[in-house]
Design brief:
- The complex is a heterodimer of chains A (about 300) and B (about 400).
- By secondary structure, chain A is α/β, with parallel strands linked by helices.
- Helices cover about 35% and strands about 25% of the residues of chain A.
- In chain A, strand 6 (about 155-160), helix 5 (about 170-185) and strand 7 (about 185-190) form a beta-alpha-beta unit.
- In chain A, helix 2 runs parallel beside helix 4 (about 140-150) and helix 7 crosses helix 10.
- Chain B is mainly alpha-helical and about 400 residues long.
- Helix content of chain B is about 60%, strand content about 5%.
- Chain B contains 14 helices and four strands.
- Chain B has helices spanning about 50-65, 70-90, 105-110, 115-120, 130-140, 165-185, 205-235, 240-245, 250-280, 290-310, 315-330, 345-350, 355-365, 375-395; strands at about 95-100, 125-130, 145-150, 155-160.
- Chain B has a four-stranded mixed β-sheet with strand order 2-1-3-4, with helices on both faces.
- Chain B starts with about 50 loop residues before the first helix and ends in a 6-residue tail after the last helix.
- Classes of the chains: A alpha/beta (about 300), B mainly alpha (about 400).
- Chains A and B meet through helix 2, helix 3 and helix 5 of A and helix 1 and helix 8 of B.
Chain lengths: ~300, ~400
C-alpha cells in the first residue's frame, strides 16, 4: 500500500452548520489521483454541502480542505481551470442551444470551439447541437452539463447527483460515459443516492448520513466486511419448502409464493445440491449490497 | 468515446509551493484529428478577460433576443403605448374651435392680417347666413359658438354643454372686444399681457410622451434584465458555476451592465425613429445628451432590479416585486401624462424615483432644447441611486435560495 503520496483531495475534519443544523459534521477523507470516488447517502445527508466545500464554493466552518495541493477557499483562479464542476441543477444559460451552451463554457476557459464540438460528439449530442437546452430530455441535459464540466480538460471532476431523476436507460448510458471519463485518467468525485450506482462505478465510496461519514472503502470490501449471508432464490415449487429445510438445515429459508429463498453462508454447497437435483429453475443469487451495509450501519432501511 | 480518445498526459498533481500555479496539461478534449493541439490557451486554460466578457455578454444578449415575453414587455408594449398615445392626442390642445359667423362681424373681419392669422390658431371661422341653422348647430354640439354683431354689440351664443369650448370662445371674444375698445380710445394700452408656456412652444403631446414612454421602456428593460439574470442564474446555480470558472464575478456584472445598456440604446433608437417618423417628433439640438442620461438611468434601474431579486426565491416573486416598484414609478414619474397639475406632495414624492429624474432630463435635452450641462445634476442623481441601491442589494444578496 502506497500511502505517502499527496492526495488529489484531502479533507480533514470539515464541519459546516447552518444555524443548529450540522450539514457536515466532522468529515475526513482522501481521494487519490485517478480514483473514482463516490459520496453516497440519502437525500439531506449533507453530500452536496460537502462537495461544494471541496470544490471551493463554500467555506468550511471548521477543518481543512486541500484540492490538488491548494486550499480551494477562498476562490483560487489558478486552481479553477484544473477542476470541472457539474452542479446539482442543470446550470445552463437560458435559451441557448446545446452547441452555444458548451461553446460558451469552453470560451470562458479559453478552450477552442472545436473542442467543445468534440465533446458534444463524445456525449452523443451532435444531432441535438441546435436544440435549445430547455428542450433537451433529462438524460440529454445531464450529458450536456457533464460535457460542459469537462470541456476544458480538467484533472478533477466533481459531479453532483449526475443521474438523479433519469430513467434507467439514460442512467446506464451515463454510467458508460462516467467510466470513460475516469479511464482517461481523471479523478472523479460524485455524489449519489443510488446504492447500485455507487457500487458499480466507484473505486471507493464514503457512506454518509446526517453530515457524517459512517464508513468508507471499496464497495466490495464494505459489503464483504458485513459477512452477510448470500441469498439464493429459485422458483417456488421447484423444491418443496420442507424438503429444502431438510436439505439445508443451517440456512434460513423462506417462500413468498413466487420464489423460494435460501439465505446461507455456504452458497457453494447449496448451489451444488440444487444443481444435483436439477432444481435451478428461476435461479437468482444475490450477495449483500451497499444497502445492507447502510442498514447495518444505521439500523434502518436505506431511504433514497 | 472510445479508444480513439487520446490519452491524458499527466503532470504530477501535487502543486509546488501551494499556489496551483501551473498550466493545465490535461487535454483529453481534443478530437483525434487534432490530437496534437497544445493545451488550451496555453495559460492554464484561462480565457482573457475580454474573451470571457464578450462570451458572457453574447450569451446574455442571445437570451434576451430569444425571450419573446421579455421582448414584448421591453420593446413592443411601450411602443404600442407610444402609437396609441401619439395617434390619439395628435392634435390635442391645438385644435381650433369651430365658430360660426352669422352675417358680417366687423370686429373680426376688420382685424389686421397678422391678428387674423393668430386668431386662426384658436378659431376656425365659417361664415354663414342662416342664423337659426347656425344656432341649431351649436345646440347639437357640431360647432362651438355662433358670433354675430348688431351695431356695436357683439353677441356670442354658446352651448353650456361644452364648458371648455364655451370658455375658450368667450375668453377670446372678450379680449377681442376689449382690444377694440382700447383702440377706439386712441390711447396706447397701458398694460400689456404676454403669456408664455413654461415648455417650449412646440411641446406638443408627442414631444412630451416620447421621452416619457422611452423612460418607462428603459426602466422596465433594465429592471427586469437585472432581476431575471440574478434570480434565474442563482436558481440554476449558473452564478455559482461561473465563480468556479476562471471568470470572476466582476466580469459577469460588467457583461450584464453592457448588455442592458445596449438594450436601452436600442430602445432609444426605435422610439426616436417611430416618434420622428410617424408622429412628428422634433428633437432639439442637444438630444445626444440623452445618451449619457439613459446610460446612467439604466444603471439606476438595474440596481432596482438587483434589489428586487436580492431576496426573491423565484422569478415570479421577483417580477411581482419589480412590477410593484416600476408601475407606480412610471405613473408618478410622469411617463404617461404630465405631473404639472398633480398636488405638490405627489410631485415631491415622485422625486424618490430615478425615472422621474431621467424623464425630466430627457425632456430637457431632447425636446426643450436646454443645454447639455443642465442635465448633469440628473445624471448625478441617477448614478447616486445606482450606487446606493446596489450597495443595499449587495448587503441583502444571497447566493442560494435557502
Amino acid at each position: 500500500m502506497v500511502q505517502a503520496m499527496a492526495g488529489t483531495i484531502r479533507v480533514d475534519g470539515v464541519r459546516k452548520w447552518y444555524g443548529d443544523t450540522h450539514a457536515v459534521d466532522g468529515v475526513s477523507f482522501d481521494v487519490e489521483e485517478g480514483e473514482f470516488f463516490g459520496i453516497l447517502g440519502p437525500n439531506g445527508a449533507g453530500k452536496t454541502t460537502l462537495l461544494e466545500i471541496v470544490e471551493g464554493l463554500r467555506k468550511p466552518d471548521d477543518g481543512d480542505v486541500s484540492l490538488l495541493g491548494v486550499r480551494p477557499w477562498p476562490r483560487n483562479p489558478r486552481l479553477l481551470p484544473r477542476i470541472g464542476v457539474q452542479l446539482q441543477a442543470s446550470s445552463f444559460f437560458e435559451r441557448l442551444t446545446a452547441r452555444e451552451q458548451i461553446r460558451t463554457f469552453a470560451s470562458l476557459y479559453g478552450t477552442p470551439a472545436a473542442d467543445a464540438d468534440h465533446w458534444l460528439e463524445v456525449v452523443g449530442l451532435t444531432d441535438k447541437a441546435d436544440t435549445r437546452t430547455e428542450k433537451l430530455s433529462g438524460g440529454q441535459a445531464q450529458r450536456l452539463s457533464i460535457a460542459c464540466a469537462l470541456v476544458h480538460g480538467p484533472d478533477v471532476v466533481f459531479l453532483d447527483e449526475p443521474t438523479a431523476a433519469l430513467d434507467p436507460q439514460a442512467r446506464r448510458n451515463l454510467w458508460d460515459l462516467l467510466r470513460e471519463i475516469n479511464k482517461q485518467g481523471r479523478t472523479v468525485v460524485l455524489t449519489t443516492h443510488y446504492m447500485d450506482e455507487a457500487e458499480l462505478l466507484c473505486d471507493r465510496v464514503a457512506i454518509m448520513d446526517h453530515g457524517k461519514i459512517l464508513r468508507s472503502g471499496p464497495p466490495a470490501a464494505l459489503v464483504r466486511g458485513l459477512d452477510a449471508p448470500t441469498r439464493i432464490g429459485i422458483e417456488t415449487g421447484t423444491v418443496p419448502l420442507d424438503g429444502a429445510r431438510q436439505l439445508f438445515p443451517d440456512a434460513e429459508i423462506s417462500d413468498d409464493g413466487v420464489s423460494l429463498t435460501v439465505s446461507t453462508r455456504n452458497p457453494a454447497a447449496v448451489l451444488s445440491a440444487l444443481a444435483e437435483r436439477n432444481a435451478l429453475r428461476g435461479l437468482a443469487v444475490r450477495g449483500a449490497s451497499l444497502e445492507d451495509v447502510f442498514l447495518d450501519l444505521t439500523g434502518r432501511e436505506y431511504r433514497a | 468515446m472510445n479508444s480513439a480518445q487520446r490519452p491524458l498526459d499527466h503532470d504530477p498533481l501535487e502543486v509546488s509551493g501551494g499556489t496551483g500555479d501551473q498550466p493545465a496539461s490535461a487535454v483529453a478534449t481534443a478530437p483525434p484529428a487534432v490530437a496534437d493541439r497544445p493545451a488550451p490557451g496555453g495559460t492554464g486554460g484561462r480565457a482573457s478577460r475580454t474573451t470571457s466578457f464578450l462570451t458572457l455578454a453574447r450569451a446574455m444578449f442571445l437570451g434576451f433576443r430569444r425571450d419573446r415575453a421579455g421582448l414584448f414587455f421591453t420593446l413592443l408594449f411601450p411602443l404600442v403605448f407610444l402609437i396609441i398615445f401619439g395617434g390619439l392626442f395628435r392634435n390635442a390642445g391645438t385644435s381650433p374651435q369651430d365658430v360660426l359667423e352669422v352675417g358680417s362681424v366687423p370686429l373680426i373681419d376688420q382685424l389686421p392680417a397678422d391678428a387674423r392669422a393668430e386668431l386662426g390658431h384658436v378659431f376656425k371661422i365659417t361664415k354663414v347666413t342662416d342664423r337659426a341653422v347656425a344656432l341649431n348647430k351649436v345646440r347639437n354640439g357640431d360647432d362651438a359658438a355662433v358670433v354675430e354683431q348688431v351695431g356695436d354689440r357683439i353677441v356670442v351664443h354658446y352651448s353650456a354643454a361644452d364648458a371648455t369650448a364655451a370658455a375658450t370662445v368667450q375668453g377670446v371674444m372678450t379680449s377681442l372686444v376689449q382690444n377694440a375698445n382700447v383702440d377706439a380710445t386712441g390711447q396706447p394700452p397701458k398694460f400689456s399681457l404676454d403669456t408664455q408656456a413654461v415648455e417650449d412652444k412646440s411641446l406638443s403631446y408627442i414631444q412630451y410622451i416620447t421621452p416619457g414612454l422611452l423612460g418607462y421602456a428603459i426602466a422596465i428593460g433594465a429592471t427586469f434584465g437585472a432581476t431575471s439574470t440574478l434570480v434565474t442564474w442563482r436558481q440554476k446555480k449558473i452564478l455559482r458555476r461561473l465563480t468556479l470558472s476562471p471568470v470572476g464575478v466582476p466580469t459577469v456584472i460588467n457583461a450584464r451592465i453592457v448588455v442592458s445598456m445596449g438594450i436601452a440604446l436600442i430602445q432609444t433608437a426605435i422610439f426616436l425613429a417611430v416618434g420622428a417618423g410617424f408622429f412628428g417628433l422634433k428633437l432639439s439640438h442637444y438630444w445626444w445628451m440623452s445618451v449619457p442620461l439613459i446610460l446612467a438611468g439604466t444603471l439606476a434601474f438595474m440596481s432596482i432590479g438587483l434589489l428586487a431579486g436580492a431576496k426573491a426565491k423565484s422569478m415570479e416573486a421577483a417580477s411581482a416585486i419589480a412590477n410593484l416598484i416600476t408601475i407606480p414609478m412610471a405613473f408618478l414619474s410622469g411617463s404617461f401624462f404630465p405631473l404639472d397639475s398633480a398636488p405638490g406632495w405627489l410631485q415631491s414624492l415622485a422625486t424618490v424615483f430615478p425615472l422621474r429624474h431621467l424623464n425630466t432630463g430627457m425632456l430637457d435635452v431632447m425636446v426643450r432644447g436646454r443645454s447639455p450641462v443642465s442635465v448633469l445634476p440628473e445624471i448625478g442623481i441617477l448614478l447616486a441611486f445606482a450606487v446606493v441601491l446596489s450597495a443595499i442589494a449587495a448587503l441583502m444578496f444571497r447566493w442560494d435560495d435557502i
